[in-house]
Design goal:
The structure holds 3 protein chains of 3 kinds. Chain A is mostly helical. Chain A has one domain: Helix Hairpins. Chain A has 3 helices and no strands. Classes of the chains: A mainly alpha, B mainly alpha, C mainly alpha. Chains A and C meet through helix 1, helix 2 and helix 3 of A and helix 5, helix 6 and helix 9 of C.
Chain lengths: ~100, ~120, ~525
């Protein structure tokens, strides 16, 4: 048996990679992939805890996170296409009509 | 248990030896006379046009988006399929409601023309 | 959880989910009917959606009556459905009405506006209805799975609504920024939830709270619990746009269609607050000693950043975005003062009253801004509202009422929100915080009066009349009446707010665990 702490450390590392990618990447698609990485880290930690507690509810949460991630990807890609159509770039630094 | 991983390590060791040896052997044995025609990317015998990294039409994205959404929704059918007997009539009704909602979305997508390849 | 199979969907479950079922049916109905309507009939979708909201409100009223009957039988307390994951208590019912009112007013504001933008599509109204379903799940969920799904249903619908003007670069950009930061904060929030699940082994809020109570007594400085608290709170503070997680709000508010900006600033924000209160009051109360300093810091930062940034804005929507950040700061002070062992304390009641009055006065202000959008005039700069008094005196006076109410001047509704927050701070002995809050309220008056000054003292830049439609007139009338009536006769509404908190959380938790 692999102890649960291994899964949790892996999940924390994945989550940190996702956050880091979100903060430093300069392409919307890559930023989006970083968010997916964060959600997958969440999934991993839920599954690990579910097997630790022998409780199914954690796995149910993973189902919903996966579907939410797919829906988010769909909406996100649609918005990205709309942005690209109106301005021909995917660099968020150049999508700057609204001052930050 | 680490003992369970011993076959995997043996496997990795075999690959680490066998892979370079076979590649090197092939390099030594095969004839080697490159020409321009041979170096071209293979596109069913037709001369390639343009760059392989060219942009492709946005319609692929729309199809991909629709595929992802409808594909992932099937995840909810699996638990029902596994517990089909235990859930009985209630489970069937529940899944029909779920599918009805999906079908509303499908009809909407269809009528909006997102499935047409113009 | 062992449960006989025939109990999967009981009559209680049906009653409690009826408001959401109604909205789902009408939302899907709008999508299908929209396919059959000729272009000149598209505005009929708005009426379908409004009927759906009315039906949902009737269903909520049925839940309320059932609650009253249960009280008469001495079983006061919350209705629990779906094996303890949905609780339609008074807290949830109060928020249901708030969401429905916000959505209805936003739809009334949208009809003409969308025609001017040439984006009159049925999907708009369907998405508004779907987002209300998500909000209802956020207010009544008692299980982190349902809360997360509700949050995402609301958020995904709102992302699309923000970017609804597809051909407008600002709308696209706002949607992109809102989506990226919203998805990011959802990820952080879900990670915190996973840690709480790991600590408790259950997804039920009551179970998690009980475990936390024991766990916290055993080791008060457990790093996992603190990490879980920090990540969950970060996600929640993102959703209500509290500093330092507020940067998305001005951009999303400025770029979104104006009626959706109004909708986001009241209903979506109220839903964020419902989720935050649900989690902080029902799940995290054992951790109050840890989160209290954090909330004090965040509320002060929010008040400062929101009020100072609003001073220099030249865009009306952006100015109101920063002012709405400042309002979140006041409400957070209510959470500081509110004693979480007693949910009906003045601080929490103040938040409930604040959310109610804010719905009316802020939607009213956005309704006036919506009417400034005419063909070829975007109309969301302060210069666009200049001289409104000479073009449309009724609207200018109504806008003045909304602005005074936002600033918290008696006898208007906004005063009562601020009054209870300040009162709770004084009652709980936070005199310094109360002083700071009052000073910022005075500062707030200044930037609201900048708008009033432009309306009354300056000449109009264009002679173009404002665009009013029957729907917009109705929205203005409702919001103005709400602002004035709550201000002058607050008793009924204050009683409603107290009612919403009248079931002590302890009994709700105990009722779930039996």
């Amino acid at each position: 048996m692999v102890p649960i702490s291994y899964y949790l450390v892996l999940s924390a590392i994945l989550f940190a990679c996702g956050v880091l990618g979100f903060l430093i990447k300069r392409n919307v698609i890559t930023i989006f992939m970083s968010i997916e990485l964060m959600l997958n880290a969440v999934n991993l930690s839920f599954v690990a805890f579910a097997s630790y507690w022998q409780a199914l509810s954690g796995q149910v949460f993973v189902f919903f996170v996966m579907v939410v991630a797919a829906a988010e990807a769909a909406v996100g890609l649609a918005i990205i296409i709309a942005v690209f159509r109106t301005r021909q770039t995917l660099n968020p630094d150049r999508v700057n009509l609204l001052k930050l | 248990m680490p003992a369970n991983y011993v076959p995997i390590f043996i496997f990795i060791a075999i690959i680490a030896v066998a892979l370079p040896v076979t590649l090197l052997a092939a390099k030594l044995i095969r004839p080697d006379n490159p020409q321009k025609t041979k170096a071209m990317p293979y596109e069913c015998g037709v001369d390639p046009i343009g760059d392989a990294r060219a942009r492709y039409t946005v319609r692929f994205y729309i199809i991909a988006i629709l595929f992802v959404v409808f594909d992932v929704e099937t995840i909810f059918l699996f638990p029902w399929a596994v517990q089909y007997k235990a859930l009985g009539l209630f489970g069937l009704a529940e899944m029909l409601v779920f599918l009805a909602i999906l079908i509303v979305g499908y009809v909407w997508v269809w009528k909006k023309g997102a499935l047409e390849w113009i | 959880m062992a449960m006989p199979l025939h109990q999967f969907f009981t009559s209680t479950d049906y009653l409690l989910s009826l408001p959401m079922i109604m909205l789902a049916l009408f939302g899907m109905g709008v999508l299908i009917i929209d396919l059959l309507l000729p272009p000149e009939w598209k505005r009929a979708n708005a009426w379908t959606a409004l009927v759906g909201l009315v039906f949902s409100a009737i269903a909520v009223y049925k839940v309320q009556i059932a609650d009253r009957i249960a009280e008469a039988h001495g079983q006061a307390g919350s209705f629990v459905g779906f094996g303890g994951s949905l609780v339609a208590d008074r807290f949830a019912i109060y928020f249901y009405y708030l969401f429905l009112a916000g959505a209805a007013i936003a739809i009334l504001m949208s009809v003409k506006y969308l025609e001017i933008e040439r984006e009159q599509h049925g999907e708009f109204y369907a998405l508004v209805l779907f987002s209300v379903i998500g909000m209802m799940c956020m207010a009544s969920g008692y299980d982190i799975v349902l809360l997360f799904v509700g949050l995402e249903l609301m958020a995904l619908s709102t992302y699309v609504l923000v970017g609804f003007l597809r051909r407008d670069q600002r709308s696209n950009e706002a949607a992109l920024k809102y989506l990226l930061l919203g998805a990011f904060s959802s990820g952080i929030f879900a990670y915190g939830l996973s840690l709480f699940y790991g600590l408790a082994g259950s997804t039920n809020l009551g179970q998690i709270a009980l475990t936390l109570e024991q766990h916290f007594l055993a080791n008060p400085k457990d790093p996992v619990a603190i990490l879980a608290l920090l990540t969950t709170a970060t996600g929640l503070l993102f959703k209500i746009a509290a500093v330092p997680f507020h940067q998305w709000a001005p951009d999303a508010y400025e770029g979104a269609p104006t009626s959706i900006t109004g909708y986001m600033s009241v209903a979506v924000k109220a839903a964020g607050w419902a989720l935050l209160l649900r989690i902080f009051l029902y799940m995290l109360y054992p951790l109050r000693p840890i989160y209290l300093p954090m909330i004090i810091f965040v509320s002060l930062a929010t008040l400062t950043a929101g009020n100072l940034a609003a001073l220099t804005q030249s865009n009306l929507k952006r100015l109101l975005a920063y002012s709405s950040i400042a309002h979140v700061g006041y409400m957070l002070l209510g959470l500081v003062a509110g004693n979480t062992n007693n949910a009906s304390s003045t601080g929490i009641k103040g938040i409930m009253v604040y959310l109610l009055v804010y719905t009316f006065m802020n939607l009213g202000a956005f309704a006036v801004i919506t009417s400034l959008r005419r063909r070829d005039i975007i109309g969301d700069e302060i210069d666009d509202i200049a001289g409104l008094m000479f073009k449309a005196p009724t609207e200018a006076i109504l806008m003045l009422v909304f602005l005074l109410s936002l600033a918290g001047i008696p006898p208007l509704a906004g005063f009562w929100g601020k009054y209870f927050i300040f009162l709770s701070l004084i009652e709980s002995g936070h005199y310094a915080l109360a002083t700071v809050a009052v000073l910022y309220a005075v500062l707030g008056l200044y930037y609201y009066m900048r708008i009033a000054n432009a309306m009354f003292m300056r000449r109009a830049e264009t002679a173009e009349p404002v665009s009013l439609s029957p729907g917009l007139r109705l929205a203005l009338a409702i919001t103005a009446l709400g602002t004035v009536i709550i201000g002058i006769f607050p008793e009924v509404f204050l009683r409603a707010a107290a009612w919403s908190l009248s079931v002590p959380q302890a009994s709700a938790v105990a009722g779930l665990l039996k």
